[in-house]
Structure formats: C-alpha cells, structure tokens
Amino acid sequence: MKHIKSILKLSMISGIAAISVGALSGCGGSNDTSANNALAQASNTQGAFVIIEETAPNQYKIKDQFPSDETRVVLKQLDGTERVLSKEEMDKLIQEEAAKIDNGTSNLTNPNNASMSSGGLSLGETLLASAAGAILGSWIGSKLFNNQNFANQQRGAFSNQSAYQRSVNSFNKAGATTNSGSGAKKSGFFGGGSKATSSTQNSFGS
C-alpha cells in the first residue's frame, strides 16, 4: 500500500508539472472540440497514470487518470486491495480486446452495448478505453479511429463526468505542450505509433 501511494504521489507531481506548463502554452478552443478530442492527446504524451476501480464483480470504471513520466495502472479491487498491473498483464488484456474488436463482439465498438448501463466494462475494455490503452495499444488504433461508438463508451467508462472532464483538460494541456515543443503529430485517439512504442519502453524499462 505504501509503495502504491508513493508511486501515485510521484506521478501526480509529474502530471501537475505537465499540466502547468501546458496551461501556459495551450490555446483556447470550443468545449465541444476539447471534449471530442479528450484523450486523443494521450498517445502523444510520454506516459499516463491511471486508476481503475472495480465497482461490481468483474465490472470496472476509470476513477482517475493524468499525464505522467511513466505509464502505470493501479487497480482498486472490491475487497479494498490495490495493485499495479504488470506490462505483461496489460498487453494480454489489450490483445484479447483487439480480438473482440476484430470479430465484432467488443462492448467498446458495439452500438448495442449493454454492459455500460449495467455498471461498467470488463477490465480489458476499461484499460483500452483509458489513456494507458492509447499508449500501450497504439498498434490497434486504426480499428478505433473515428469510431463514434468507441468515443461514446470511452466517456461512459469513467466513474463520473467530473473524472472524465479532468482527464480531458489534463491531456489536452499536456498534448498542447508536446505539440508546441516537437511539432505536429498524427491525430486520432491512438496518434503516433512510434511514440507509443518508445513510451512503453521508457515506462517499463528492459
């Protein structure tokens, strides 16, 4: 528990720094545009710290997320325990969700989604809807690019709209800083694949 709290504290410091710099360099835009591009900036940032909460047995929501120097996902389970998901575990979950997208059974892209209204998505679906999914799952970006169903489910994947809006603001500001400092990047929720790959390597080391 102390280890996870230390990770959270350090990640919040780096995230706040990114947001503060972004606030100085970001330019204004309509609220609708900001919301629609909410997490499109995620794949253009170095990393993301994501907290996923189990709200019911095998149902999950994104409790919070923000830019960070490293990509880490903390899972808060129903029994009160917390743990950091390993890269291997996240890769496996993302690959399983990619297969569901291919065969048309993914709740993230299915217009007749029922899981969301019943309280949450699976762990893999929630991970893929998060900023960590944008970074680690950049290789399946073309399957979700401009998918309106995914955009709708992504918004609903958060525990509440306040958490969603905080994420919108933090990643838009961090993305504005990145773009102004290194030039334009590919657009879309899973922007630059090469950037996402390097971010994964930087985040988790060898």
UniProtKB/TrEMBL annotation:
<feature type="signal peptide">
    <location>
        <begin position="1"/>
        <end position="25"/>
    </location>
</feature>
<dbReference type="Pfam" id="PF26303">
    <property type="entry name" value="UPF0323"/>
</dbReference>
<dbReference type="InterPro" id="IPR059092">
    <property type="entry name" value="UPF0323_dom"/>
</dbReference>
<protein>
    <recommendedName>
        <fullName>UPF0323 domain-containing protein</fullName>
    </recommendedName>
</protein>
<keyword id="KW-0732">Signal</keyword>
<feature type="domain" description="UPF0323">
    <location>
        <begin position="48"/>
        <end position="173"/>
    </location>
</feature>
<feature type="region of interest" description="Disordered">
    <location>
        <begin position="172"/>
        <end position="206"/>
    </location>
</feature>
